[in-house]
Amino acid sequence: MSLLLYYALPALGSYAMLSIFFLRRPHLLHTPRAPTFRIRLGAHRGGSGELLENTMEAMENSMAQRSDLLELDCQLTRDRVVVVSHDENLCRQSGLNRDVGSLDFEDLPLYKEKLEVYFSPGHFAHGSDRRMVRLEDLFQRFPRTPMSVEIKGKNEELIREIAGLVRRYDRNEITIWASEKSSVMKKCKAANPEMPLSFTISRGFWVLLSYYLGLLPFIPIPEKFFFCFLPNIINRTYFPFSCSCLNQLLAVVSKWLIMRKSLIRHLEERGVQVVFWCLNEESDFEAAFSVGATGVMTDYPTALRHYLDNHGPAARTS
Question: What CATH code is assigned to 27-311?
Answer without folding.
Answer: 3.20.20.190
